[in-house]
Design brief:
- It is a single chain.
- This protein has eleven helices and eight strands.
- By secondary structure, it is α/β, with parallel strands linked by helices.
- It has two domains: 318 residues, 3-Layer(aba) Sandwich (Rossmann fold); 35 residues.
- Strand 7, helix 7 and strand 8 form a beta-alpha-beta unit.
- Helix 1 packs across helix 10 and helix 2 packs parallel to helix 7.
- The longest helix has 27 residues.
- The radius of gyration is 22 Å and the shape is globular.
């Protein structure tokens, strides 16, 4: 008896609007207010300059290891600018640009990278989860939150960020499977920066794209030029509409590039060619967006110089604030804060024992 053939996979839609020279496909260009376009560029510039300052301080031994965002600003700003402030964000460990857009204080980021958990404090009105270092572990959290929002009949959604390396983790597949089965309003934002530390994308999977992995879980996957902030915004906006109106998830693969190190403990010259880096540098998302804004008379050379000075001053003020706060850190019991809204008995007992031990040591010392 002949078997009925399964329906072939739908072609993956690829979004590309803004060319490296700043020219644009006017039919696909999103209708964004001028002030929002300017705000998006400022956030991208701030993230880039903040990255550079962090690296400088880390090399001086004044900060700890961190994951630079340089090269991936469009993927983050283009997506986070398309969701509402009341929506939830579940970041990984490289979402500096997205955090800047959401309003995360720069001094807090400085403090966290300096090694103090106090820097992880999320402002009360900010629906963000803390930085998540274990690869992919934030994805099930994001889906769980999205499911809870659906149960509560909220129109909010959850956007979660991760790299191509996370698609090789079990958490990725478990999260996508749950999202597909329970139809949760989740946007999976994969920043395919071509390298999972030193493992190239072609050694992680034989799939033609990471976006097509969504098909196995029953929901749409799209691919986008991740260095094209307008294309990322458009793709994310459509995913937002799908999440709000149909309570359906979307996997967005942003093809981008990590211009620098994986983290400051990494040396990429060992495993990738400088020619590859230079090729991607020609597609720099910041340069591309700047050319576009200039072509629309939304950014002049004088305005750009002013922005550069504003951003520099903002970063230096944040660094001074961070140093002042760090000097005042003298209460180690903060490690028990922000774990539960109402501390469990074991946590309360541990805190009491810790305080007694610290008091005894201080008395004997």
């Amino acid at each position: 008896m002949p078997k009925a053939a399964l329906k072939a996979l739908e072609p993956i839609q690829v979004y590309s609007i803004l060319e490296p020279d700043g020219s644009v496909d006017s039919e696909l260009e999103p209708d964004l207010p001028d002030d929002k376009l300017q705000a998006m560029y400022r956030a991208m510039l701030l993230a880039r300059r903040f990255d550079e300052r962090l690296l400088n301080l880390q090399r001086q031994g004044r900060l700890g290891t961190f994951a630079p965002v340089t090269g991936q600003e469009a993927a983050q700003i283009g997506s986070i600018a398309a969701v509402d402030q009341d929506d939830w964000m579940a970041p990984s460990f490289r979402e500096t640009a997205a955090a800047v857009w959401r309003g995360t204080p720069l001094d807090g980021l400085f403090i966290f990278i300096a090694g103090y958990n106090e820097g992880q404090a999320i402002p009360e009105d900010q629906n963000d989860l803390p930085i998540c270092v274990p690869v992919g572990s934030q994805l099930p959290h994001a889906v769980g939150m999205a499911y809870a929002l659906k149960v509560k009949r909220s129109d909010r959604l959850v956007i979660t960020y991760f790299g191509d390396g996370a698609t090789s983790e079990g958490d990725f597949h478990e999260a996508l499977n749950f999202a597909g089965v329970f139809e949760t309003p989740t946007i999976f934002m994969c920043q395919n920066n071509q390298w999972a530390i030193s493992v190239p994308r072609e050694k992680q999977t034989r799939a033609q794209s990471l976006a097509q992995k969504a098909a196995a879980y029953g929901f749409p996957g799209v691919k986008v030029d991740g260095n094209d902030v307008l294309a990322v915004y458009r793709a994310t906006s459509e995913a937002v509409q799908r999440a709000r109106e149909e309570s359906l998830p979307t996997l967005i693969e942003c093809e981008t590039y990590r211009m620098g190190v994986h983290t400051t403990a990494d040396d990429p010259t060992v495993y990738r060619d400088e020619e590859e880096v230079e090729e991607w540098r020609e597609r720099d998302p910041l340069d591309r967006f700047r050319k576009y804004l200039k072509s629309r008379d939304l950014l002049s050379d004088d305005h750009h110089e002013t922005l550069e000075e504003e951003v520099k001053n903002e970063i230096e003020e944040a660094w001074q604030s961070a140093q002042d706060q760090i000097e005042g850190f003298d209460d180690p019991t903060v490690i028990f804060d922000h774990m539960f809204q109402d501390p469990t008995k074991p946590i309360a007992d541990q805190r009491e024992a810790f305080e007694q031990a610290a008091k005894k040591e201080k008395t004997n010392g």
